[in-house]
Amino acid sequence: MKRTGVFICHCGINIAGTVDVKKAAKELAKHKGVVHSEEYVYMCSDPGQNLIIDAIKEKKLDNVVIACCSPTLHETTFRNAAKSAGINTFQCEIANIREQCSWVHKDMNKATDKAIKITKSAVERVRRNESLEPISVPVTRRALVIGGGIAGIQSALDLANSGFEVVLVERSPSIGGHMIQLSETFPTLDCSQCILTPKMVEVSKHPKIKLMTYSEVQEVSGYVGNFKVKILKKPTYVDPDKCTLCDECSKVCPVLVSNEFDLGLTGRRAIYIPFPQAIPATYTLDIKGCPGLLPIACGKCADVCEPEAIDYDMKPEIVEEEVGAIIVTTGYDLYDKENMAEYGYGKYADVLDGLQFERLCSASGPTMGKILRPSDHKEPKEVVFIQCVGSRDPELHCAYCSKICCMYTAKHAMLYKHHVHDGQAYIFYIDIRSGGKGYEEFVQRAVEEDGVLYLRGKVSKIFEDKGKIKVWGVDTLSGKDIEIDADMVVLATAMRPSKGAEELAKKLKIAMDKDGFLSEAHPKLRPVESVTSGMFLAGAAQAPKDIPEAVAQASGAAAKAIAILSQDRLYHAPTVAKVNLNLCTGCGMCVEVCPYEALSLKDGKVEVNEVLCEGCGTCSATCLRAAIQVKNLTPLQVHEMISISLGG
Amino acid sequence: MAEEFEPKIVAFLCKWCSSAGSDLAGVSRMEYPPNVVPIQVMCSGSVSPLYVLSAFNKGADGVLVSGCHPGDCHYIKGNFYARRRIALVKRLLDFIGLEPQRFQMSWVSAAEGTKYTQIIKDFVQELKPLGPQTKLRRDL
Amino acid sequence: MVNLEDLKKEAKTVLEEGKVKYIIGYEKSANGLMPVPGFIKSPEEVEKLIWTPACVYNLTKFLVDEKRRKSREKKPDERPVGLVVKGCDSRALVVLLQEKFINRDDVFIIGVSCEETGVIDEKKLIKKLKGKKAEKIEFDEKDNFIVTTQEGKVKIAASEVLAERCLECKANSPVIYDVLLGEKAKRSVDNPFQSLEKIESLPERERWKFWKEQLSKCIRCYACRSVCPMCYCDECVADTINFAVTADTTAEEKAQKIKWLEKSPVKSENFVYHLVRAIHLAGRCIDCGECERVCPLDIPIRFLNKKLEKDAKELFDYEAGFDPEQPSLVSSFKDEDPEDFIR
Amino acid sequence: MEKVLDKKSFPQWVKKLSSYTVYAPVQEDEVWNYEVITNPEQVNLDFPNTVLSPKKIIFPQREVYLEFSASNEDGLEVKEVLPEEEPSVIFGVRPCDARALTLTDKVFGGDFEDIYYWKRRNQVALVGLACHTPPSPNCFCLSVDGSPFSKEGLDVLMSDLGSKYFVEAFSKKGEQLINPAKTLFKPPTEKDKKELDKNRTEAKKRISRQIQNIKKIPPKLKGMFDSSLWDEESMSCLRCGICTYLCPTCHCFDINDEIFSSSPLSGKRIRTWDNCQFPDFTMHSSGHNPRQGKASRLRQRIMHKFQYFVERYKNYQCTGCGRCISRCPVGIDIIEVLDKVSSYEG
After folding, report:
1. Distance between CA D90 and CA A231 in Å, rounded?
2. Is the CB of C331 inside 8 Å of chain B's CB atoms?
3. If chain C, 343 residues long, is cut into consecutive pieces of 10 residues, what is the mean pLDDT of each piece?
4. Burial status of residue C193 (CB atoms within 10 A of its CB: 0-12, 13-18, 19 or more)
5. Within a domain: D267
6. Is the ipTM of this complex over 0.85?
7. For residue C330, which residues of chain B lie inside 8 Å, CB to CB?
8. Is D264 a domain residue?
9. Cys staple from A549: which of A48, A61, A223, A545, with CB 3.0 to 4.6 Å?
10. Residue D228 domain-assigned?
11. Mutation for testing the B interface, residue in C263, C311, C330, C341 having most B CBs under 10 Å
12. A491 and A354 in a common domain
């Protein structure tokens, strides 16, 4: 019979105050197979660890149970101690008698009884643990960054500058994301394009970065250190190497469609360059608007293209890449128009969202930086800004705060005043959230220097009347009804995960929270990791955030990825699924439930890819024949734990 | 005077959410009755119906299976399989006449120490009037 | 009504053509009314085949034997086995296909439609005949059976002696077949869970009393498990020793066999057995009713399966045995699966 | 001792036996089984045959041998558990089932006396009920040296004479059952005796099923160990345990420890019926199973009953109750199998 040692920690009085540790140690000493049982004031201290090490050596212990705090805290400490005494790390189990016992109970007798059961249960488990060594796998020292906004650009540059190859995939024709659409950025009011374009250029010139725009990730397989990615490269029908950006094609193109870069405030041709500084600098033929790729259908653009850059025969292409880590920076979209009909958005031309207003303010925008009403191109004299449109509204819209709207609305009001000196800006708000370096001062500046009028309250009605947009609301501070005859209304609509993020998350097998933002592995301690190892998150894909935060997270994610890529081999937890081939009938139910595609059928039996398996055990509960189980938490172990927990 | 009946409860807690939530209850020094012995499993999706039946067979007065909220599963979707499986087991146990209060499932996130505390308090309160579970307990 | 001669003709043709290695069908027994499973190996033996309302057996079970036999043979005959199936039995085939236990090429399916009727419950018939010994039973054109006893012919309304499962049948006609005999007619069933609902509607205390009495009777002959086409595991979780052992099986693996329940046929252990059985059949049971038919103690086991069948339908809109491509009940989920029971 | 008892007086007789635990057939749903009777009016002898034979009372499906628990560091405390010795009587025992007990008596009372069996066996009195109409269409007692009014193994035999029972006691135990209710019994008239004879002659004729050439079978079986007959006959076998568990003569058992607590160790050592039709019956811990397929298990059942047992005890280990035939889920018929054995060539 295996020789087990039990070590019960007092944790000062944290445990010993409620659990009679002496009694517990005595009871455990009687337990079958326990040849050593002692208690000590701080097991995690050096002397405490030495007790364990000495006992393992002297009493020739096969395994140990440490009854102490939660395994999330000191499991590694004690497993390392066990290892240094010459036993396998998995021959050490933790019985959590602090967080799940001494700290939540008062009655000493009952708490002691419970602590004894918890510890015995750990003894029954550890006695049946297999000694395992981490699974080692080689690392493909390249990374994939999905999304070419500021976060993706930053991650890609950080990785590339550290010497690792990066594949940067962006689904639109140019990188730059939403940031390239902005006019100025808070709280410094520097020009967004001016600070972003150098980075974009760096990306395009970087020898370590393989930029794939107009491309989408189709399929991801493999595991940390060894992902295989299939990327769909959509045809642009323009050879970027030949294109001279002469713009002749777009001049002859008969098709006019809404320009997404200006959020519909302007139009563009079917063959177009998204914006002058686009990277890669080339034209793209958008076949959605194009009358046809055959010369008989139209063919005007090809006719005028002197360098013969236009190639109607270009086909979609699937590119396969192998990478060791993946950073997902898919960003955000604004809350759909349809959801915001109550504010007349989409119905009245002069009700705009924040990004449209950015374009109006932008020197490269449709009005060349003049703020004019889209309806009649007149300068608006009264502008109402409304915050929290769709955010912080659990009943009807999004429950969360979109975080950046307070700041950009202050900026919008300020920019408006800078353009229209005799205009008046009103801001309807619930509260002002301006945490951040220089943020509060920025808001104060808007009020004090630019005379922005902040109205605390909600807007009840917006309607058009004689060329004005009537805004009815309440100022909850004064209790007065407010009616403004506005020339323009700007809505700070909620930030949503970008369209397609859900589909991508499913392909990547990373979790999403209830709002559709990608889930980090731990809200505090692992904020840039996803739950799938080797995949990291940055930017607004994870939660609403502003540029500095997105950049910081992007660099953080890059650093995490580098931590993987800089190693020769990776180690994977060996507590993975194991198949009893004698029992397996090959029904494939486990294959269906595996969240990681770690299981597959081969010759009528299931096979485990140990590197993909995360050891969740869903397969084991699904299998009708107990043919698959997770090492070191097998049904037998659980069975024994159940028995002992119930006193037998 | 006879001692008050103290139900024995086995709680299968998933490592990442419910067990962490239970840890949080401890860290926050909340108090709840000591009737529950927790068994940490990797995922609620790994809780086999056999575990539940076995716990009742070995004399549990109540069984709790607790996992991450939908969408929060550390293993992406294990809790969805658990939800289906446990629904079936629960219906079946109700059908054979086991008191429905005896078998519970909950979603407890790592941040929900308070919720975990409340669930245990309620569970113990609901089990007390029922007395010991003898229906499925082994009568060997 | 399926003509026996048509069945024989089909069987004869495939045997003569060498399309199948043998046919599993129903054969007259030397003793009385109930047929026996027949294994027809040559065209001459086809004459043994019968088709009567007493053809109760779900013959798909014998595919399990066939698969085991084949796996032991060095040079197995790769031809399919011919199999006579009723509607319900065909659904079992669908589940076996879904679970990849068999390949579609392993079996040549001779479907026989029950049309407007079904098969008898022998116990009901015996009761109805009050001691007269039935020698022969035939389908009538209408909703009757013609029973020949020592004292002559009796006409009995089918509804009086039909098996309960036939009265609640969801597939009178095979859902998968290579040859279909008879019409694809479907008897309209008002409520496939009628008999179950009587038990469901009892108060908790009564339900417990019912099941306690019923399951306490069980002697664990395992006939319910043995007859079930879905119980094809080499080793059952209810078994207390390892069956599926090879030379490679280590002592440790053998020692790890879990006793989820004891061999003693006492109430508590019987409950574990029957509940596990029911759970393991959730989304797989196709209600052929064989488990209940064979129970020597007349335990209404079918209700346990029926209950889960109903729940699967109600909660997850899942029905077993119609689509071999669908993922199984417990290896799939929907985002909107109910969770009102979760705290 | 020969008596007659008015049917109306029968409950009163049962009432007089208050010092006994009384078993009688009870119907639940469609199934008859022997149960303990608390109300004598409840006893109904108008039954076909029970699903389980009275074997289940004397040789119960689960028997505790001993209880053990870890007492202290020295080791185990072991407590023998013996059946309670209480006089009991079983009414309505069919002659075939009573004969079956004489066969299990030989097994449990051979070189080794099984104390658990005999504690109960010695205390039980068997009151038989003659089969004037066969209780099952598959009765074949005549083929295996039995008869519908065999007294073998019985203490008392009751025979139905319409409004009364003809009651014969063959043993002291039997007489002791009648003595406390002496006044209820009357001596039989000649008419009664004549009617009894007539009934018995008729009864034999009513048994329609029989084994051909039963005498030839034991020697014939000797050469049939490797016969392909077993494969053919077992094709439809499902490997369930019905034929064997319901057989009044089958007596195999298994011994297991039921552990209630692994630490400190406590539990019971129990025996349960075992079943040669189950694959685990002959399973070796090595994984080797000498009776791999169902053919070898059918062969075992037949050979044990009609060869090995005959060689050892000079009796067939079968009393023709027909349960295995009636209850077989796939209609495997022991009579047909034996007839095929008789006519088997090759």
Report:
1. 82
2. yes
3. 91 96 94 90 95 95 94 93 96 97 96 91 90 85 86 90 92 94 82 92 96 96 96 88 75 81 95 97 96 96 97 96 96 95 95
4. middle
5. no
6. yes
7. 81, 84-85, 88
8. no
9. A545
10. yes
11. C341
12. yes
